[in-house]
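Changelog excerpt

This revision adds worked examples to the README so contributors can see how folded entries look when concatenated. The first example is reproduced verbatim below.
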Amino acid sequence: MSRTVLLMVFLVATVALAGCVSGGGQVPAGAVGGSGDEGGEPNEPPPSDPGDDDRDEGSGGGSGGGGGGGGGGGGGGGGGGGSPWAPPAQPKPPQSPRPPQSPRPPPPDTSQPTYTFTFQGVNPLQEGLYGAARPLAPPTIVHRNRVHVGSDVASQSALEPVKDINGVSITKGNLADVSDSTETEVVDYVRSHLEKIGLSPFVDPTVVQIHADATADQRRLTEDAVRIVNTALPYNKRMRLSPSWTAGQKSGAIKVTFDRARPATPSGESPWLGTVEAKYWYELDAKGNQVATSKGATGASVTIFPNEFSRFSDPDRMMTAVILHELMHALGAWGHVDDTVMAEKLAEETVMSPPAFILTPIDRNGLLAMYGKLDAGLQHADLDADSLGGWSDTSSHLKGEFALQGSEKASFGIASANGFLQPWAEGPEPNGSLAKNTNLTGTVTWSGALLGFTRTQTPEEVVGTAELNINMSTLASQLYFEDLKHLDNDDTWGSGSLHYWVEVNGNSFSRYSGDAGSLSGAFVGASHEGMVGVLERSDLAAGFGGKR
């Protein structure tokens, strides 16, 4: 018989990087965190740990082990990398007539999109924190001279032709491409994270708080990591970004700090890149062992040691991956899996390699399963294939592709598998920023298509036109999705159209106001001859793109 304790304890770990990683050395497990009393702070960490004043596990090329004690468990985490970029998206005001285009958009709407979840009341402060926080647009990253938006699920296989819209070739089909994520592999991946206490995710959606002392770059990299992890969370469980820092308050929040006071580790020694700590609800089994309950986690903290990252060839990409890795731990992935972002040993060349968004397919599908298929409190011994309620290795795809200069192409689309919708877009990086393209004057128009699936129990295919108009003198921009119809029967979807004001930032753009939803896009092609992006709403997820 189990005894419910109904108190929170801490899962703590620290990590070290073995040697200098300039050549991509392997990284063994790091040190172990201390124990904690029921509901209290952990005991003092080992001498090599920088301390526990609101800190959590970190990672830099490797990951750490776990600890135990009166009320606390232990867990560890390793490194990764990434240096994505994407401006924040905001929400919704009145639409203006199509032409003529106003040189100045309306003020941004501060209302929040409607989500389809209900809070469980586990953490009373969490709903208030979440309601005040800002939703983040899908991620955008430039990696190896290619621009990527949304998820890393672009179809590389041939699909069946459907039609052309504004010069975009549209194809569709089913592919057995949920690679490395078959039912057995997903079970094995998730099981590796349950060994310490069982499954302890956040039952309700959570927020991320970034310490006020973080630099602009550190804040940007943290936001990028949150955007990437959000692509592997169900739409109604995605993290938001808090507008403020609440000292000492962890309920319902993942707190991220950057300890710039800690000097870099001397050359030749293993540097500590950070720590992670999580609070969760537990009960005691008949043997006195702690097991996670259905209440899940209540808070977590991540501390990164930024002075350690100058040793890497791409400090931004490595730091993004470290934050990403620690967010995965904070969300309940407390184990390690080889050849993934959660690997215990990670070489720098692995971080610099594809996938562009760092998460491997099994990382992404494992987290989706943890938050979309499984219940908090599930124990290691109880997890099997039946726990997933059925898992398919097949995705349904819609894909659009169009030609750019020379032999270059851009593409976009969406994949649907196991109840999750993942829109994506990609293309070659431009040679310079849009604003400095002197060949573009007046109002410039990109025309193409939108391809999406409805967020219904059985996703339905939706297609339509996409048109982006930009006044090059002011960069005032409007994006229109029109003639939106169900692909199978040609019935109009919704009102048949969506309209957004978008904000251009370098070679990317994001929703400024207009209809509901989160939107990210980018210009592609040497001379900005293409644009691609993704749109996510409570009723639709889609990729889009077009050319001048």
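The second example, added in the same revision:
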Amino acid sequence: MKSSFNVLSHYVEGWRKISSLLTLNSEALHQFWLQVDDTVYRIHELLSNGSPLKIYNELLTGVLKRLLALGDFTRAEAIALALKETAGQQGNKEALIKANVILGYTHFNLSEIDEARDVFKQGLVLLEETLSDQILRIIFLSNLSMTVNSEESLEEALACGHSALKILHTIKKPDFNALAENIDKPSWDVQRSAVMSNLGTLYFEMARRLGEGKERDAHLRRASRFFTRSQSGDITFQDKLRSQANHALVLLLQGKTTAADDAFARLKSQCDGKPSLQRIASWITGFQAESALQQGNTEKALELCHTSLRQAIQIADPVLESQAICNAFGPLHSICDCIFGSNPDWEHFQEKGMPLINELLSFLEEKDWYTAKTHSQGVMRIASRLFEVISNRISLDRIGSSLRKIQIAALLHDIGKLRVPWTVLNRTTPLWERDFNLIKKHPAHGQQILEAIGLGSLSKTVARHHERPDGLGYPEGGNIGGIADRILAVADGYEAMTTYTRIYRKPLSKSDAVKEIKNLAGLQFDRFVSTALSEAVD
């Protein structure tokens, strides 16, 4: 057990930098993933056998922390679920509370907001009126204040945030800090700053949802107050920068563009050349893009969006990376409306649109080492040939798409993987079902991204490229769509079969891949398009 744990500890910090220097399918990288899985399997077995939790408490805490630092939520969740079950059987309230914290955190970072909220509420029920439980109550309430996905939950989140702040102010700082240190929880100042920042974010979100008016202005003033107060006390430099950036964003929404730009520039200079501040730098650059857009400078806004995405992709922590990517895509829709218009001219797309697409593919290439540009370009080549063969058999009206449009959809069909943790995308050991479920979300993520950047007419084709005629595809498990969608599905399947190389899967020859797709015609792939494949790859 200890040897696996030590290897896991050694690799977690900065492992992405190490692994990116290794060749693909490197045995060293593969051994790392084997050690991660070995550690998790052995701890899971230990818990399933009902081992006394007190003996292994330190080890469990250490492994869970390292898995969360690695962004491996699938395996952290597996341990937390087993821990919750065992703790319940043994009546160990401390372990049960810890399991709820971890489970809520994993659900939250997998964008399963309702599930996260339910688990945090379960944790609250377990707490009593002791000082240590009051500290945990503040943490649960603070976590609940982040679980917003509707107007109703926004009101509930505000109530939780204010409750956390009220409890915090009833506890003397020295008493809080003494106990927090013993139970490995944040200090009074850090916890206060987090709650204040959450409340500022919630009021800011309420303001964004309103049109101009007194209510919106009042929410922005509240947000500004909370962001300002969250900067005080003994907190980290990163937390101060984050609060200052939020405050500058309030200025931007208030129409104080010059003041906001000056604040962003000051903050950006403090982040330059500091990898630990990469997420904040990406965040600030995204805000600068919004400011440039408000001032009508589309070219500068697009350049800043590119910079923000590039900074986001370089973040080692997969959770922070995902958040930064979402932030960077924020202003792109309005920018792309200016570039492409509401109905892009696909036949003349090369000049205006391809620089952006190539930039997006380069971001994906940095994140997904196995596919990205090489795979996307291969899918485009096969899709182009299939289109040519099929257009000789049926009319273009029946295909329902132009060659250029299919080519661009093929290039961008995996763009949704930008929203999948890179710890899942680049795993060399067989995927768990939970890992695969995360990957199965990438067509829907791709649809959202394309709609966000003004390419909504491609989004349905991209969303359906893993659907199947037998209804067993994903993400919907429904209709495979029109001819263009079916062409993309076959092209993607063939390219994956003939080029993907992983430790546990070798590529097929061209003839074997054609035979495999014909065998799956009517099940995984469309029969009509499958019959055109052998001619397309000759």
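Reviewer comment on example two: Residues 27-48 form the longest helix (22 residues). The radius of gyration is 25 Å.
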